[in-house]
Amino acid sequence: MSFAGVCWAMVSEVSSARLKAKSAAFAMVMFDLTLLVFTVSVPFMLASSGPGARNWGTRSLFCFAITCGLATLGNYFLCPETKGRTQQEIDEIYEKGIPPRKSSKYVSSLEVAGGKAHHD
Questions:
Q1: In whole angstroms, what is the distance from residue 108 CA to residue 36 CA?
Q2: Which residue intervals make up region (Disordered) (predicted)?
Q3: Using one digit for the tens of pLDDT, what is the confidence trace for 70-102?
Q4: Residue 38's pLDDT is what?
Q5: In terms of Cα–Cα distance, which of 95, 84, 69, 87 is closest to 11?
Q6: Whole-angstrom Cα distance, residue 41 to residue 44?
Q7: Per-position DSSP letters for the chain, written without gaps between them
Q8: CA-based nearest residue to 60, from 73, 47, 74
Q9: Is the separation of the CB atoms in 56 and 45 below 8 Å?
Q10: What is residue 36's predicted lDDT score, i.e. its pLDDT?
């Protein structure tokens, strides 16, 4: 399991057209910083001898499990549900301040007007 592709999916699905370039730049910087941290730290976690060796072996799993757990929580609390939503509906969710974890139950103005069926 990996969250490596999440930042690119988030940029394309959730960003408003006005902020898409800034969102893409932010996602790229965060992805690269995370990649740098893991590229530098994993060899030390797995090394059994030498300067800075930690000899964690299979215990390095905990580092990745904690990281994926935190990413899962972040996705749950910070990322709105985009399934079946148009870009305008996602923008409306942000404008109205709907919490991302409740966005799947939100009925947009497009759905209220009868222009689209609500999907749970």
A1: 40
A2: 100-120
A3: 988 988 888 888 888 888 888 888 889 889 888
A4: 87
A5: 87
A6: 5
A7: ---TTHHHHHHHHHS-TTTHHHHHHHHHHHHHHHHHHHHHHHHHHH-SSSTT----GGGGHHHHHHHHHHHHHHHHHH----TT--HHHHHHHHHHT--GGGTTT---HHHHTTSS----
A8: 47
A9: yes
A10: 93
Mean pLDDT of the chain: 84
Which structure tokens are listed for 32? 């690269």
| pLDDT score of 111 | 84
Closest by CA to 89, choosing from 16, 29, 11, is 16
Tokens of 58: 């299979």
How far is the C-alpha of 11 from the C-alpha of 6, rounded, in Å?
Answer: 9
Q: What is the CA radius of gyration of the chain?
A: 19
CB 87 within 8 Å of CB 12: no
